[in-house]
Specification:
The chain has 83 residues and is mainly beta. It has a four-stranded mixed sheet with strand order 3-6-5-4.
Length: 83
């Protein structure tokens, strides 16, 4: 992770082949990941990964859920769960 004047930039290799694509993933930080996931799922959002722990940090756990927009681009919800 890099802090770019308040914007967090994460660089890394794709976890799975389906995430290996030519565009960037935009992450939306939400307070309640499970509630947001369930709401968007009911509205027809095409999730490709349920909420899951991505990285345990010293003071919080980073959780994410990945989905696709109508143009088939990857997007993600993210939430920092404080310990």
């Amino acid at each position: 992770f890099f802090d770019c004047d308040g914007v967090r930039l994460m660089m890394g290799l794709p976890e799975n082949p389906e995430f290996d694509h030519p565009s960037s993933i935009i992450y939306f930080k939400v307070q309640n990941l499970q509630l947001t996931y369930e709401t968007l799922l009911k509205r027809g959002v095409n999730f490709v990964a349920e909420p899951h722990l991505v990285a345990p940090m010293p003071d919080h756990d980073l959780w994410m859920a990945f989905f696709k927009d109508p143009d088939n681009n990857f997007l993600a919800l993210m939430s920092e769960i404080r310990k």
